[in-house]
Amino acid sequence: MKIIFQKNKILYKENFDKFSKLNSHAGAILSFIGKVRPTNYDKSVTSIDIEIYEKMATTQMEKIIIKLNAKYKILDHLIIHRYGKIYPGENIVAIFVCSKHRKEAFRFLEETVDWLKVKITFWKKENYTNHSEWVEQKNKDKEFVSD
Question: Which helix (H) or strand (E) holds 138?
Fold first, then answer.
């Protein structure tokens, strides 16, 4: 079980293959890739900048994983989240999860993404052709998670 924050591009295939091989005993292996969209609110995005306080983000993520694993009993996970400058079409986050049965893995995966959006200390700035804006959390994202 591992959480990685990195500036480097996420090598999806290599990570999936390694995770799958390490977890060949699992009944279900799922993955999720979050990407930078080329547009947001009808504005053309040229890049995003993600800043992170890594020690705090790691601690926050570990607490969330403990909570979710108690609910869903997954066997293993790998979460890779990028920071720094990221361009449209590039991967921001990759999550790999395995469990005995698919339902646990799907639910764990979905809730992990929801928690990443609202409880992990990231600062995200979208850069457009002529200006930049810091991204605020959306209320619709907050409603899916509860302490």
Answer: none
**Total count of domains within the chain:** 1
The candidate with the shortest Cα–Cα distance to 94, out of 50, 34, 54, is 34
Full residue range of the structural domain in which residue 93 is found: 2-130
**Per-residue pLDDT reduced to its tens digit, 64-88:** 999 999 999 999 999 999 999 999 9
| pTM given for the model | 0.91
What whole-number distance in Å separates Cα of residue 80 and Cα of residue 6? 7
Identify the CATH number of the domain in which residue 98 sits.
3.90.1170.40
Strand partners, 27: none
Residue 108 located in a structural domain: yes
Flag whether pLDDT at 36 surpasses 60: yes
Task: Mark 33-49 as b/e (b = at least 16 C-beta within 10 Å).
Answer: ebebeeeeeeeebebbe
Is 90 within the bounds of a domain?
A: yes
